[in-house]
């Protein structure tokens, strides 16, 4: 005979069911809860035994809730949200942020900009632990269990909140040796005679669009080149080998520009519509911003030098993503 579980023994099990419903998989739920996948499965089994009805519908490809499971989640979600808000408010009264901060960022941006800043943050806030995953995959924060995403994109999902960290820009760059051999383009149309190293897009073809700094001229130029890649660090290194002219985000181009390894071309024109013009910190919507998240975003705004790593700093703003 199965022993009847006291309801208060099942609070964490019910919360686990809610996280499972939110993430859609046992693996993602385990990651968010920071427990093993087996522990998540065991809690769900125990909760089903206590409820006397199936709560989760399992298939080889997905996990969903039964009608009973969805009803339980719907009835308890608001209560757990209030508990989370209350605990966050109390924890924020402590001397500083603490706990685990799970962050995702693109590979090139993460390696060149974010990773070098992390030691300073962890020294300032020793009670915080950071889990950083570098991936160019646009992760679903709720599904994959991330607290924060750093994204160099034109827009983010309207289900999230986006904070602008700083403005960025795109840069055309080549080595002095390449330009001495092949000539320096004077206008965007001159790029037709150059080996253009561009970011690999699904369409396969590439068109670079420009606007004059005065804003009175626009031109789109189909470009061709002997090399494409889906990583700006790789494009920079190939350009440094004097192979051609590369279109790079400023965070990849600036170290080589400062050293003189590369020089900027077409300085009188602004590249539009290729790389994004803003760096965002993106988080799932919550009524109260976790202190670890706000502290890390604030730190990035402080430490990313506008004149060094990226193209410029904007006013700190936050609102629903668009």
Q: How would you describe this protein?
A:
GO terms for molecular function: DNA-binding transcription factor activity; sequence-specific DNA binding. Keywords: DNA-binding, Transcription, Transcription regulation. Residues 9-66 form the HTH lysR-type domain. Belongs to the LysR transcriptional regulatory family. This protein has 322 residues and is of the alpha/beta class. It folds into 3 domains: 3-93, Winged helix-like DNA-binding domain superfamily/Winged helix DNA-binding domain (Arc Repressor Mutant, subunit A, Orthogonal Bundle), CATH 1.10.10; 99-168 and 277-303, Periplasmic binding protein-like II (D-Maltodextrin-Binding Protein, domain 2), CATH 3.40.190.10; 170-272, D-Maltodextrin-Binding Protein, domain 2 (3-Layer(aba) Sandwich). It has 11 helices and 16 strands. The protein has a 6-stranded mixed beta sheet with strand order 4-3-5-15-6-16. It is elongated and about 80 Å long.
Which features would summarize this protein structure in a list?
322 residues, 11 helices, disordered C terminus, elongated, D-Maltodextrin-Binding Protein, domain 2, 3 domains, alpha/beta, 5-stranded mixed β-sheet
């Amino acid at each position: 005979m199965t022993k009847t579980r006291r309801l208060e023994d099942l609070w964490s099990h019910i919360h686990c069911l809610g996280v499972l419903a939110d993430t859609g998989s046992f693996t993602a739920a385990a990651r968010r809860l920071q427990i093993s996948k087996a522990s998540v499965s065991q809690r769900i089994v125990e909760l089903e035994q206590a409820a006397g009805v199936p709560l989760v519908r399992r298939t080889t490809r997905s996990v969903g809730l039964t009608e009973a499971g969805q009803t339980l989640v719907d009835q308890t979600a608001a209560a757990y949200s209030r508990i989370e808000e209350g605990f966050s408010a109390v924890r924020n009264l402590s001397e500083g942020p603490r706990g685990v901060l799970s962050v995702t960022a693109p590979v090139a941006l993460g390696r060149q900009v974010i990773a070098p800043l992390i030691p300073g943050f962890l020294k300032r806030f020793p009670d915080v632990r950071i889990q950083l995953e570098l991936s160019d995959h646009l992760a679903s924060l709720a599904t994959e269990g991330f607290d924060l995403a750093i994204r160099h994109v034109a827009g983010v999902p309207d289900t999230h909140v986006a904070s602008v960290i700083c403005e960025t820009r795109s840069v055309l760059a080549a080595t002095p040796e390449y330009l001495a051999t092949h000539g320096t383009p004077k206008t965007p149309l001159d790029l037709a005679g150059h080996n253009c190293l561009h970011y690999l897009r699904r369409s396969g073809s590439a068109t670079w669009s420009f606007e004059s700094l005065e804003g009175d001229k626009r031109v789109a130029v189909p470009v061709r080149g002997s090399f494409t890649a889906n990583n700006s660090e790789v494009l920079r290194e190939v350009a440094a080998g004097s192979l051609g002219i590369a279109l790079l985000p400023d965070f990849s181009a600036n170290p080589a520009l400062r050293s003189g390894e590369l020089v900027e071309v077409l300085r009188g024109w602004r590249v539009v519509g290729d790389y994004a013009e803003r760096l965002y910190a993106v988080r799932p919507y919550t009524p109260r911003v976790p202190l670890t998240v706000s502290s890390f975003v604030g730190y990035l705004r402080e430490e990313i030098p506008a004149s060094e790593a990226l193209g410029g700093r904007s006013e700190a703003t936050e609102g629903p993503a668009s």
